[in-house]
Amino acid sequence: MASCRVRSSSIGKLTIIILNCSAIKAASKELERIDNVFYTYANGTSGLIDPEGIERLCSDMEVDHTDVRVLMLAWKMKAEKQGYFTLEEWRVGLKALRADSLSKLKKALPELEKEVRRPSNFVDFYSYAFRYCLTEEKQKSIDIESICQLLHIVLGSQYQAQVDSFVEYLKTQNDYKVINMDQWMGFYRFCDEISYPDLNNYDPELAWPLILDNFVEWVREKQS
Amino acid sequence: MGSKVIEFNEGWDYLQRGITKLKKILDGTPDAQFSSEEYMMIYTTIYNMSTQISPNYSQQLYEKYGEALKEYIKSTVLPSIAEKHGEFMLRELVKRWANHKVMVTWLSRFFNYLDRWFVSSKSLPRLSEAGLVCFREHVYQEVNSNAVACVIDLIDKEREGSQIDRALLKNVVDMFVEVGMGQMEAYEMDFEAEMLADSGEHYSRKAASWILEDSCPDYMVKAEECLRMEKERASHYLHSSSEQKLIEKVQHELLVVHAHQLLDKEHSGCRALIRGDKVEDLSRMFRLYHNLPKGLEPVANVFKQHVADEGKALVQQAEDAASNQQGLNGAGAEVGLVLVRKILELHDKYMGYVNGCFMNHSVFHKALKEAFEVFCNKSVAGSSSAELLAGFSDNILKKGSSEKLSDEAIEETLEKVITLLAYYSDRDLYAEFCRKKLARRLLFDRSGNQDHENSFLTKLKQQCGGQFTSKMQAMVTDMTLTKDMQTNFEQYLGSNPNIKPGIDLSVVVLKTGCWPSYKSSDLNLPEEIVKCVEAFKGFYDTQAKRRKLSWIYSLGTCNLVGKFEPKPMELVVSTYQAALLLLFNDTDRLSFSEISTQLNLTNEDLVRLLHSLSCAKYKILIKEPNTKTVQADDNFVFNYKFTDKMRKIRIPLPPIVDEKKKVTEDVEKERKYAIDAALVRIMKSRKVLSHQKLVMECVEMLQRMFKPDIKAIKKRIEDLITRDYLERDKEDSNMFKYVA
Fold it and tell me: Can the peptide bond before residue B708 be classed as cis, meaning omega within 30 degrees of 0?
């Protein structure tokens, strides 16, 4: 047995190493579990969770697949393609949520929602929601029908009245067939800044997107 | 004199006698005067008394001086003034003032030594000053309010027409000024303020009654006269500083207080004067109001309103006439020409006012401009104002114009049209219509005079910039080039007789891009015409290799000889019509579908074509059945019996497209590009700019060509954002950044 004087620092290092080892072991165990959940829903051939997998996931979590929390989950994962989760994205998301099982994931949803709805995060989430729906490469705008659905999902609970009115307008007008990012973001600013339904502080001389100028005109005409 | 000490009483006694003598002189006693000896004695006495070492009587002398004056004032001056009234009192006052000045002068001379030494060492007022102060405190203070009232009374009497002693008033006023001893306070506070207040009241009363009784012109004449008189009054007997204040006061009472009532008088006010063309009265109105701050604004507003109303009435007239004629085509086009002519006349008339009775003042130029902008941009019966104006200038420039003007008159009228153009916001639309009409004039040889065309383009360029006129200028040049080309072509044919087509052909070569775009269809040409086309193609290839010719048969003209039974006739028709008629060289009768197959035209074109030859004025073809419109199952027979009293007739083919719609669309598109270009240019140089500023600068940049719609600009901004030229600032959604 080699006699060696073990200095306290080396003991410290040793301890850290030992602890790290267990942490790593624990972490790798967690990752294993996360991956396991992933593979439950992934498509065998592609190695991704595809729309069908997401539907099953949703049903297991007992949320509707058009529920906003699914979108929030995608945001947390920074998922790039609508309807698909890669393994990497899945890991990022579930790790951040500290969920390594289906039940933990389900339990994490209310917390996730609160986090997203925080004003500092919501704008980011809102713009993410738009980008997430751009399916084609070089696509810059989204058709009216999809926008209406998206509006309901993302803003419906917070700004129901404005969303309902704007959706009605979008469906009746003929000037625009698609909505672009600038107009999308403009609408959130509108909900956030403009008092509704009186619209008293709306000034069309400012840089509001033209579609909102037209929307306001339409609302005012209806009110009179 | 020696160094004898003079006792005070002794000395004073002696002096007193001198003073008494002085008073006698002042009172006008004849033969009273000082000899030089007496004068010297008095002076020396005082000198001695104030230089002797002890007792030194400087102080007492000084006091005595003041006392002497005071005593005189109290005993003689005041009473003499007080016992008189009115004008007499003023005279007395003036006399006593003059006397006082003389007295002070003499006494100062006597007591002069004091002035030199004693006064300054004791920091006392100088003798002359002390003397004036004496008067001021003992006379002036007592009598001035009376005097003021008197003066004002006299002024008012003069205003009512009486003659007054102006010299007296001048003297009184001078006294007020002098009493101030360098300061104008006495004059201003004691006299001027009262005088101004009184004048104000006087004219306030007058104005109140005149405004009710008099017509506007009469009132103005009176006002002008009053102002003239007051000015004269001021220059005759008031201090110069009062003139301005007096005039302002009077102006205020006469012109400002009742301005609205005066100008708005129903039958004689500003509006009525303009309507009645009362140039002299309007000139007077201008003169009266132009010095007042913002005085001309109400007048200019009435002027603007009147001109705008007259203009609107003209537009309404045209609108009504057009609806009677059912639109502006054909006979209705006359309505448009009449309207423009009347607008030009209106402009001449009221510009005359601006230059004449309104003395070319900028306020009125502005009013005229704004008035014209109100109605010049109104459309009539669906035709935009730009189109109507273009129709008018086209009419002037074409041959056989309905206007029948001399060369000078043409130039003048064109000049006026361009001046009028400044009031139109859709200048680019006007230019585009002009281009279309110019093309027609040039291509169908309807242009009156090359010089007028060029001069018109030069004027248009000055008004709107080169980008408008460069295309049109190129078109005019093309016509010259084409003539040369034609000469060369004929030479070419001369030296190559075998390719001669046997028909005279003249070709106009248009440079793509500067001419309007024309549609042409794939017409099946008759043999004869094909030969012509081939011949020219061959020639052109020798002139300009690498250039491609596109033939526009829809614009061509053909002269045919029709061998009709009664007599042969020359028919001037379009190429399309010629192609159709030549089919009948081989057969007498053709059905619609046969013609259609042979010519290869659209049904729409064919119907139009056949209509012009069988259902219009000249029936070259007989249609079976003889209904009013052409149907697809009709048959057509050559009308051998056709004739007309003329030997040569032109058979018109009306154009299909209402060019109005296309022109408007083209211009809209151009505007989009222009707005885009302007926005990019601005953002490129500014890098970061707020929304409002961007819109403002964009409008300014484009205003020479057209007035951009704010919504259109917004839309273009959004488009530029989508195309990644601009982006919205992340912090402030109202700011835009240029994306390099």
Answer: no
